[in-house]
C-alpha cells in the first residue's frame, strides 16, 4: 500500500480537480455527487459547537474517498464470487434462479436495473449467500463507551468488541439443523431482513457504524449475479463434481475465497441479444 501511495494520491487529486473545475465553470450545480458534497464542506468546522473544532481538509477528503473506493470494490467482488460459487455447488438453485430470470426478463434482452426489484428468488439467494459468507466476518471492531452487562457478562468501558457475524450465520440454534446447507428457501415467506434490523443476519453490520454503502453494494451484487446467471450457463471445469469444489476461505477483514473460482460459461440468451 505504501508503494502505491503516490499513484493513489494522483488518482484522487484528479477526481478532486475535475470536480473543482466543474464547480467553477457552472455557478449553479445541476447535480451534486458525493465528491461535490465533500468539497462543499472543505475548510469548514464540522460542528462549531464541539469542544475540539474539527476542520475537513483536502487530505481528509482524499482519505474518505479512498475509504469508499476500498470498502466498495473488495466487498462487492467477494460477495459476487461467493454467490456464484454456491450457485455452482447447488445446480438446482442455479436453475431456479435462471428460471426466475427468464420469467421476469425473457431471453431476448439482458437484465436491467429496473428488473431487480421483481427478482424475489435472487433476493433469497443473496441473503443465503451472505448468511454463510458474510464478507466482513467480524464486522468492523467497536469500542464500548461505558461499562455494560449483557446476559450476565460485564463488558468494561473501552473494551474492543468483535461481532462474529460468521458464527451467528452458522448457529443451528438460531437457524435450523440444516444450517450448513445452501438453502435460499429458508427465506421464503419470511421477513428476515439483512439491513441491520435482524441481529441474526448482519452482513452489513448495524447501527450508526453500519455499512453506508449497503444500497449501492446490494445493487451491484444483485445486478452482476443476475447478469452472469441470465446470460450464461455455467459449468465446472475438467468434469469437476459440485461436491468437490474448493470452498476454503481466506481469513481477513474481508473474507474471500482462498483460491480462485474457475468456471466455464456458455452463452444462454437468444442469438444476437448482446
Ligand atoms: C456487498 C457489498 C458490501 C458489504 C457486504 C459491506 C459490508 C460492510 C460491513 C459489514 C461493514 C461494517 C459495519 C459494522 O461494523 O456495523 C461495512 C462498513 C463500511 N462500508 Fe460496506 N459493504 C458493502 C459495500 C459497500 C459499498 C458499495 C460502500 C461504499 C460506496 C461501502 C462503504 C463502507 C464504509 C465507508 C464502511 C465503514 C463505515 C463506518 O466505519 O462508519 N460498503 N461494510
UniProtKB/TrEMBL annotation:
Keyword Metal-binding included in the entry's annotation: yes
InterPro entries: Cyt_P450 (IPR001128), Cyt_P450_CS (IPR017972), Cyt_P450_E_grp-I (IPR002401), Cyt_P450_sf (IPR036396)
Binding site for heme: 211
Keywords assigned by UniProt, alphabetized: Heme, Iron, Membrane, Metal-binding, Monooxygenase, Oxidoreductase
This protein's GO CC annotations: membrane
Subcellular location: Membrane
Pfam families: p450
Required cofactor names: heme
Molecular function as annotated in GO: heme binding; iron ion binding; monooxygenase activity; oxidoreductase activity, acting on paired donors, with incorporation or reduction of molecular oxygen
PROSITE patterns (alphabetical): CYTOCHROME_P450
Keyword Iron appears in the UniProt entry: yes
Similarity-based family: Belongs to the cytochrome P450 family.
Protein name (Swiss-Prot/TrEMBL): Cytochrome P450
Protein's organism: Ficus carica (Common fig)
Amino acid at each position: 500500500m505504501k508503494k502505491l501511495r503516490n499513484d493513489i494520491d494522483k488518482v484522487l487529486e484528479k477526481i478532486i480537480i475535475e470536480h473543482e473545475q466543474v464547480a467553477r465553470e457552472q455557478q449553479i450545480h445541476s447535480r451534486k455527487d458525493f465528491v461535490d458534497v465533500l468539497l462543499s464542506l472543505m475548510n469548514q468546522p464540522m460542528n462549531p459547537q464541539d469542544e475540539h473544532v474539527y476542520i475537513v481538509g483536502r487530505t481528509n477528503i482524499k482519505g474518505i474517498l479512498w475509504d469508499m473506493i476500498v470498502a466498495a470494490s473488495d466487498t462487492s467482488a467477494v460477495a459476487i464470487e461467493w454467490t456464484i460459487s454456491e450457485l455452482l455447488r447447488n445446480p438446482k438453485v442455479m436453475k431456479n434462479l435462471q428460471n426466475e430470470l427468464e420469467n421476469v426478463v425473457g431471453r431476448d434482452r439482458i437484465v436491467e436495473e429496473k428488473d431487480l426489484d421483481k427478482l424475489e428468488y435472487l433476493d433469497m439467494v443473496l441473503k443465503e449467500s451472505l448468511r454463510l459468507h458474510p464478507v466482513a466476518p467480524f464486522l468492523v471492531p467497536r469500542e464500548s463507551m461505558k461499562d455494560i452487562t449483557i446476559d450476565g457478562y460485564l463488558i468494561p468501558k473501552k473494551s474492543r468488541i468483535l461481532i462474529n457475524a460468521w458464527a451467528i450465520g452458522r448457529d443451528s440454534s438460531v437457524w435450523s439443523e440444516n444450517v450448513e446447507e445452501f438453502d435460499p428457501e429458508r427465506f421464503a415467506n419470511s421477513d428476515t431482513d439483512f439491513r441491520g434490523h435482524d441481529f441474526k443476519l448482519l452482513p452489513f453490520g448495524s447501527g450508526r457504524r453500519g455499512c453506508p454503502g449497503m444500497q449501492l453494494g446490494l445493487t451491484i451484487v444483485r445486478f452482476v449475479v443476475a447478469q452472469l446467471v441470465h446470460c450464461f450457463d455455467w459449468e465446472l471445469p475438467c468434469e469437476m463434481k459440485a461436491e468437490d469444489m474448493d470452498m476454503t476461505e481466506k481469513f481477513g477483514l474481508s473474507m474471500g475465497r482462498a483460491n480462485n473460482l474457475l468456471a466455464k460459461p456458455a452463452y444462454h440468451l437468444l442469438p444476437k441479444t448482446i
